[in-house]
Amino acid sequence: MSRSINLAVIPGDGIGQEVVAEGLKVLSAVLPQDVKLETQEYDFGARRYHATGETLTDADLDALKQHDAILLGAIGDPGVPSGVLERGFLLKLRFAFDHHVNLRPSKLLPGVATPLAGQPEIDFVVVREGTEGPYTGNGGTIRKGTAHEVATEVSVNTAFGVERVVRDAFARAQARPRKKLTLVHKNNVLTFAGHLWTNIFNKVAEEYPDVTTDYIHVDAATIYLVTDPGRFDVIVTDNLFGDIITDLAAAVSGGIGVAASGNINPSREFPSMFEPVHGSAPDIAGQGKADPTATVLSVALLLRHLGHEAEAARIEDAVSADLAERGDLPARSTSDIGDALAARVAG
Amino acid sequence: MSRSINLAVIPGDGIGQEVVAEGLKVLSAVLPQDVKLETQEYDFGARRYHATGETLTDADLDALKQHDAILLGAIGDPGVPSGVLERGFLLKLRFAFDHHVNLRPSKLLPGVATPLAGQPEIDFVVVREGTEGPYTGNGGTIRKGTAHEVATEVSVNTAFGVERVVRDAFARAQARPRKKLTLVHKNNVLTFAGHLWTNIFNKVAEEYPDVTTDYIHVDAATIYLVTDPGRFDVIVTDNLFGDIITDLAAAVSGGIGVAASGNINPSREFPSMFEPVHGSAPDIAGQGKADPTATVLSVALLLRHLGHEAEAARIEDAVSADLAERGDLPARSTSDIGDALAARVAG
Ligand SMILES: CC(C)[C@H](C(=O)O)[C@@H](O)C(=O)O
Ligand SMILES: CC(C)[C@H](C(=O)O)[C@@H](O)C(=O)O
């Protein structure tokens, strides 16, 4: 547990600016007096891309490396071609800083609306691999724009990359009361990658006899996420499957307004990055309508990663209490919600 | 509209046997006297694989080619390693017969239970590409079983393959009252394949000015499928994304007990294949517990493909009427449901 936190702050685009301000408000409020918080803001995202054509330079990476962690709002703007900021900034950062554990908890808190009937119990964590799979950018295009164009995408999976994230997931499952880990893949079709994942999963499982394991195809997993989400405790999965099922998981457990994530480098060789699962939502940006809760919960993950477990739990409790009362309150602005959460964690 | 139907029947494994029997029962009942139905049963699946090691030979393909269409139950058995029957039979057939339009309608019928709150209106069709993408089996493994294993999966996408399925989807959208087509992909990350899909989609859209189009990332699509499924009319998407979202679509629109599919070769160069979306469900096989409705609805798709629109509609109406009354009935066996549907379509 560090007595100082040197934080890189990347508000980014759209509502990113608004929600990050509230995240920092709650962070300042929760930290004990003797923990020194330093923040440095970076102007990455669409604005900088439009102004300079740059997304993330080597010098930027060097600067970010000096921090203990990164808090990110959201990156993306309709004026930038699809893929430019995603590949040029967000994925570049995840890969450069080897964020191989993409952690996405889903918990349906009391009082929170879900599209599912019968208010099921939902409390699981997805450990999404963050540096391999179809996200590597391998592949290419020939005869572009012609009737004979061929475009490929190569999913790259290594024993090294799979084993470390599978181990991380087993350790997380073992630390939870239900001790259950589900591998989600599509090993009946993607047999090369699927067998690698399945074999490593089964091998590591032998070291965790107290963890119950199972395997589900990704297509079937989407069914269970809506018909029986309570069956999941910890899920480990590949980068793309993780992307897909965590959006669905967010949807059923309160919506992307409350879905937090951590892009974690467990070795701490590079700073980890914490961000809400939602995007920059340009349609509601600048209006104080965005819910900062996902960012505030991402701050909790950040604190836990840096060893401030008590403060992380205080934030999560504050969010639970706030959400439980929301039904009775008139709609609040982004900063009203931030103020309320800051007051609770300070109190 | 043919005056005879020469059908290949592949009951397959597990509940496949039971549901196909009911599908044939309803098919016989619905056909007019003057349409001659010939069926030939093929013993593909786990039993044959265990007995002979064969999944689908060239001679099998030659035999199947002689038929007008194929009705498939389900293939798969826990005793066969994952991937063997999927790649060696089901996908081999889809690829050999160039089933590039994998058609999967989702309609929430009155009286049918859904895991979603508020019984939303759901009536859309997914046109899933069936012969490309990550399903091609391209890829491989090096240093298998070692700490340095690398496994790749190559998604192959061609202008030829994408354009024909996109055109099929536009034509289907144009023929529906709402005339709306949504492209689902992940073009912000899978930029090579994503741009190919997006460019072709936009190009073909110019020929269909009366069709409203939009684009949604696959991760976001899973959110809309549970929060606002009514926004979808026709969806066109890649093989793997289609696999994933159609299981979710089935789950929200009545479950895989009623989800039908067609693996269609629109040129009719080879026979098309119709099958329920569900698997062989070995846990309930042989007990008369399986719901044959998905197979019966697949028979309707088969009839429509062969030009028997009136009979297809009669089956769909019978299923709607049967489902609407289910809530009031005690649980029925597989064959009871088949009998009830056969009586309705004959009546
Ligand atoms: C914006 C996009 C590149 C990103 C992803 O696909 O990982 C997002 O969907 C997410 O889940 O964080
Ligand atoms: C069994 C499997 C190969 C198949 C697929 O992935 O296409 C199934 O999930 C389906 O959707 O028909």
Automatic annotation (TrEMBL), chains A, B:
Cofactor remark: Binds 1 Mg(2+) or Mn(2+) ion per subunit.
Annotated residues for binding of substrate: 94, 104, 128, 219
PROSITE patterns: IDH_IMDH
Localization in the cell: Cytoplasm
Residues where Mg(2+) binds: 219, 243, 247
Domain named Isopropylmalate dehydrogenase-like: residues: 6-341
Pathway(s) it belongs to: Amino-acid biosynthesis; L-leucine biosynthesis; L-leucine from 3-methyl-2-oxobutanoate: step 3/4
EC numbers: 1.1.1.85
Cofactor(s) needed: Mg(2+); Mn(2+)
Positions of the record's site feature: Important for catalysis: 135, 186
Binding locations of NAD(+): 279-291
Keywords: Amino-acid biosynthesis, Branched-chain amino acid biosynthesis, Cytoplasm, Leucine biosynthesis, Magnesium, Manganese, Metal-binding, NAD, Oxidoreductase
Enzyme class: oxidoreductase
Catalyzed reaction equations: (2R,3S)-3-isopropylmalate + NAD(+) = 4-methyl-2-oxopentanoate + CO2 + NADH
Keyword presence, Oxidoreductase: yes
Pfam families linked: Iso_dh
Family: Belongs to the isocitrate and isopropylmalate dehydrogenases family. LeuB type 2 subfamily.
Assembly information from the UniProt record: Homodimer.
PANTHER family in alphabetical order: D-MALATE DEHYDROGENASE [DECARBOXYLATING]
Record-given protein name: 3-isopropylmalate dehydrogenase
Origin organism lineage: Bacteria, Bacillati, Actinomycetota, Actinomycetes, Kitasatosporales
Name of the gene encoding the protein in the UniProt record: leuB
